[in-house]
Write a structure and sequence with these properties.
- There is one protein chain.
- Helix 3 packs across helix 6, helix 4 packs antiparallel against helix 6 and helix 6 crosses helix 7.
- The chain contains twelve helices and no strands.
- It has about 260 residues and is mainly α.
- It has one domain.
Length: about 260
Amino acid sequence: MLDNSDFEILLKATLRIYQDSIRGALRGFRLNWYWAFIPVVYLLANMLLFSILPGGIVSGFILGIFFTFCISNYLALIESTVNGEKIKSLQYLKKDTIEIFLNLINVLFLLFIVSLFQSYLPPQLALAVNLLIIVCFNPILEVCYLSSSSGMESFGRALNFVKENTIEWFFPMFLLALPLIISDWSALLLQLVKGDPVQATYRFITELIVFLVGGQIPLLISFAILLILLFIFMVFRGLLFKKLNGSSRRKRIYQYRFEG
């Protein structure tokens, strides 16, 4: 148990971590801001591939693999930004993209196996399982690109991280989600428990834009703002994960007392 003095120091140490992560995310955006718009290239490439492929199970499999590769490349961009590196070209990220891709494929395969079992569950129970997965393994993407683990080990690390840093990790996510909670929290929750994090993230950032600027801006500008906020948000998550991972609350209290 922490006494009042330790709790106050822990609170200050945690706020400093948030502050450093926000500053680092903004600094990372200034360093690699133009790469925030790379999802446009991914989108166009996926659309082109979809128009070329004939359809069917094999085509769906190819599209899934390519989409996963695009996500892996984006996470490699985030990783380099989190590490304070200036990205000069996508070729610079080739090795990291392949490593993340292999980790991510293993994770997605295991989630696919779980989804097969979920198909035999009652709808309400299946949704509850999805929500449990999202909460318990929330930092799974950060584990995939910031550690060398893969498969079951990635899930284990994500779960341990959440157990050790539940409040510190989810509190800023809750604050960022306030615009959705204020507007229509049920829609976000429904998309999350249906296992659609892409749509949930899109809705979250869109609602944040509406909350900040009132929605009175052209669609193209809204989309650009969405990509910028997504980039900053992902870098923030990566920095926060790095600062919290492998650091206990006792250690943070000690470091804050030592460093002042």
